[in-house]
Specification:
Layout (H helix, E strand, L loop, with lengths): L4 E5 L5 H11 L4 E5 L3 H7 L11 H8 L4 E4 L2 H7 L2 E4 L19 H13 L3 E6 L7 H12 L5 E6 L9 H6 L4 E5 L3 H14 L8 E5 H32 L3 H9 L20 H14 L3 H28 L8 E5 L14 H11 L3 E5 L5 H9 L7 H7 E4 L2 H5 L4 E4 L11 H7 L5 E4 L6 H7 L2 E4 L20
Parallel strand pairs: 1-2, 1-4, 2-3, 4-5, 5-6, 7-8, 9-10, 9-12, 10-11, 12-13, 13-14
The structure holds uridine-5'-diphosphate-xylopyranose and adenosine-5'-diphosphate.
């Protein structure tokens, strides 16, 4: 029986874009994305979608109301669908056993219990959220222990590999689609049905089937490998700064080895995002539970190196500003964890901001896509501070990079937004306190030009020549 109706539980960064593309490519299937958050669903049904993702608006506009629906009526959508994706969030646990490392599966469990309470008949339940290995088994236990008469479940693992900022292209032209399932006739039939959905637009050769546990681990593994590459190049960036080598030149040379390749070798202030840290911590926790401490320590080092890199950057700012930033004005350009997204989860900008705020700096923050309420929320969260009112008084959020930088002592660039390349830095320099500093945490700016204007420039993985300091701070210097 071909699939006619799909329900996706969770209308977030994964469920929303992946099901929108699925609806666009499968006009013969009705796709309903449900969420318990009324606000989120209202946004999905409005002109301003809850997430910023290039190309997403057009996809939603094409399909919404045709075969793509966003709803809070979770029960009806589950009851009517033959195939149900679980795309709820799986944050790192903040308390109890595995605190700070294990994935919190309470939302997955909630979704499974909801399915068990309303579903009747055959259902294929597909785990799309990132989960620890063997989570499918737990979901199945819940489903089978609570099922209604006549309900029969197959559970599949189908991890999502989209990256934010390029999600639509990643979904349309996926390198691979993984489907893990049970090695039984029913399990294989379920794999076949899900594969049929993807075959609407993904070549069969790119759809890889395997056992459920391999599929679950194959979600964590690439994120761990990618993050490991960034930590590796970031570790060398420290060596470059100490020796006079340039990390971009080293990365280029390393990437030319066809066995290594050039991607994910951009040294930075550190990696962020909802996946890398969470997935590695999850892997570390699994390894500890499996009594594999050496493996756990190996992967933990990737996280530790990232912490080191973020701390190193913040310390560089403080040290350069004569070892004190108390009362100093600092502009933070970029708050999202990478360009082309409004997502701030685990953003290095939060780490940098916290360190500077702890030192008493006054921050002027500008990001083209992050809402000011999100920035305030991130920096006043109880995990960040026990004095939210003080923090609020130290932050000003701007809607323009020129007002954000006017009158500040230093600029710390934390996100590689393209628009930062083309700002009028001469004008910015004029408006800043002197000596004027730029800390380029993404190594994207034209440093020679900035130095010529008169800025003191510091970046990741490269020592820069300082401007000849003029006694009268302010007049342009020669490189
Ligand atoms: C990642 C994976 O790429 C994706 O396959 C998975 O499904 C989810 O996790 P995402 O976190 O959205 O995607 O973005 P990604 O492009 O991987 O970047 C993650 C972080 O690494 C960002 O903070 C980015 O700025 C940083 N990064 C990336 C670097 O610092 N250097 C690089 O060379 C590449
Ligand atoms: P991700 O990046 O993994 O997509 P998000 O946090 O962006 O994570 O989205 C997850 C969504 O799942 C949230 O909008 C949340 O409200 C929703 N959600 C969590 N649990 C349930 C549930 N039991 N039923 C419906 N929606 C849920």
């Amino acid at each position: 029986m071909p699939i006619k109706k799909i329900c996706c539980i969770g209308a977030g960064y994964v469920g929303g874009p992946s099901c929108s593309v699925m609806a666009m490519k499968c006009p013969d299937i009705t796709v309903t994305v449900v969420d318990k958050s009324r606000e989120r669903i209202a946004q999905w049904n409005s002109e301003k979608l809850p997430i910023y993702e290039p190309g997403l608006d057009a996809v939603v506009r094409e399909c919404r109301g045709r075969n793509l629906f966003f709803s809070t009526d979770i029960e009806t959508a589950i009851r009517e669908a033959e195939l149900i994706f679980i795309s709820v969030n799986t944050p790192t646990k903040t308390f109890g056993m595995g605190k700070g490392r294990a994935a919190d599966l309470k939302y997955v469990e909630g979704a499974a219990r909801m399915i068990a309470s309303v579903a009747a008949g055959d259902k294929i339940v597909v785990e799309k959220s990132t989960v620890p290995v063997r989570a499918a088994e737990s979901v199945l236990k819940i489903l089978r222990a609570n099922n209604k008469p006549g309900a029969c479940y197959q559970i599949l693992s189908n991890p999502e590999f989209l990256a934010e900022g390029t999600a639509i292209d990643d979904l349309l032209n996926a390198d691979r689609v993984l489907i893990g399932g049970e090695d039984t006739p029913e399990g294989q039939a379920a794999i076949h049905e899900l594969s049929w959905v993807y075959e609407h637009w993904i070549p069969r050769s790119r759809i890889v089937t395997m056992n459920t546990w391999s599929s679950e681990l194959s979600k964590l593994a690439p994120n761990a490998f990618l993050a490991q590459r960034i930590s590796s190049i970031n570790s060398l960036s420290a060596v470059c700064e100490a020796t006079g080598a340039d990390v971009s030149e080293v990365a280029k040379a390393v990437g030319l080895d066809s066995r290594i390749g050039s991607k994910f070798l951009q040294a930075s202030v550190g990696f962020g995002g909802s996946c890398f840290q969470k997935d590695i911590l999850n892997l570390v926790y699994i390894c500890e539970c499996l009594n594999l401490p050496e493996v756990a320590a190996y992967w933990q080092q990737v996280i530790d190196m990232n912490e080191y890199q973020m701390t190193r950057f913040s310390e560089k700012v403080i040290q350069s500003l004569f070892n004190t930033v108390t009362g100093k004005q600092i502009a933070l350009l970029g708050f999202a964890f990478k360009k082309n997204t409004g997502d701030t989860r685990e953003s290095p900008a939060i780490h940098v901001a916290k360190t500077l705020l702890d030192e008493g700096a006054r921050l002027h923050i500008y990001d083209p896509k992050v809402d000011s309420s999100q920035i305030m929320h991130d920096l006043t969260h109880p995990m960040m501070t026990d004095q939210p009112e003080n923090v609020k008084n130290l932050i000003e959020i701007h809607s323009d990079p020129y007002t954000a930088t006017n009158g500040v002592h230093a600029i710390a660039l934390c996100t590689e937004w393209d628009e930062f390349l083309n700002l009028d830095y001469g004008k910015i320099y004029e408006g800043m306190m002197k000596p004027a500093y730029v800390f380029d945490g993404r190594k994207i700016l034209d440093h020679k030009k900035l130095i010529k204007i008169g800025f003191h420039v510091q970046t990741i993985g490269k020592r820069l020549q300082r401007p000849l300091v003029n006694r009268l701070w302010g007049s342009p210097n020669q490189v």
